[in-house]
Specification:
Blueprint lengths: L1 E6 L4 H12 L4 E7 L4 H11 L3 E4 L2 H10 L4 E4 H9 L6 E4 L7 H9 L3 E4 L3 H17 L3 E3 L2 H10 L7 E8 L9 H4 L4 H5 L8 H9 L1 H14 L6 E5 L5 E7 L4 E5 L5 H9 L13 H4 L14 H11 L3 H17 L7 H13 L9 H19 L12
Parallel strand pairs: 1-2, 1-5, 2-3, 3-4, 5-6, 6-7, 8-9
Antiparallel strand pairs: 8-10, 10-11
Helix pairs in contact: 4-5, 5-6, 6-11, 6-15, 10-15, 11-14, 14-15, 15-16, 15-17, 16-17
Length: 393
Amino acid sequence: MKRLAVLGSTGSIGTSTLDLVRTHPDRFRVVALAAGGNLDLLGRQIDEHRPAMVSVTADGDAELLAAEFPEIEIAAGPDGLERVATHEMAEMVVTALVGAAGLPPTMAAIGARKDIALANKETLVIAGDLVMAAAATAGVRLLPVDSEHAALHQLLGGRPGAAVARLILTASGGPFRSWKRSRMERATVDEALDHPTWRMGPKISVDSATMMNKGLEIIEAHHLFAMPEDRIDVVIHPQSLVHSLVAHTDGTLIAQLSVNDMRLPILYALGWPDRLDPPVETLDLAAVGRLDFSPPDPDRFPALDLARAALRAGGEMPAVLNAANEVAVATFLRGHCPFGRIAATIDAVMNTWSNRNHPLVSIEQAMATDAEARRMAITALGNTTTLSRVPSS
């Protein structure tokens, strides 16, 4: 019986995780939950799983939950997140928060020697070297939940050997795969959220539409598998059935395939090293019939090159990239900037930061960089109304 703490329990990854707990009650037990402000769903999760501790964003929501569930420890804010992440009963922490907010509790969980099922790619984007070093020092397992990185973990058995030439991440291409750039720049929020193959939260859906999601995954793969940026490729694969490939030095390609259901990579991380029966169908290749692949267009998807440039620059720059992206996406989702300004805003903030980029030596420095880059992005967008983070669900 593996005891779990789930950060972001009411988002898409969190609810899928709890669905797997429901289908494998003999293997998993939820001991702590952290969520935002969706109290109706969180209340149902508490009723079903009866965790020892729950944390929410707002103090007022915590007071409401404490009155409804007096037998459960209730906390709020960043401190509450870290208390859930380090709960003494938890053996594994599922980090399903969206954005930079996931970094401090993930680091706290690593410090408390909890294994990590990592769905918060921004943790590695912002401070990958520090996170991986901390995990190695603590002796904890860091298991990726992104379908692409879970695929690579299965193909590589952890880290690549000398025979691995390249890692190849697949991308659906999002809703604008075949759109002209001029049309993309005028895309509406509803159009950006209409992903053709995956059902995700709003932030990651927009990131898929810009392909920044794949850019962030390049950085994540670099840290998880110690692979140089120039040996990590991206290929458009609209069916989203091949999740990643490994190219070996002898010219051999090995691919991982499955139906496009996030419960599969989540279950792989939760159950590792065991493979558990999934609550989803097996991929029927004969029914699929064909698999298509094409290169991404850098002119229509400049976010890929921006992410690669941030990774090559190193230091604080990946945190700057991520912060500017979060602000631009949140502003777009609120209807306050056109889709075409997302990448342009990130580019402007990175260019401004390039003359002051420093090596990253602490989490405090990473979070300070995040805060300052957000302010710069807001200025670039001409919107000084909020520093809030993107919505998670």
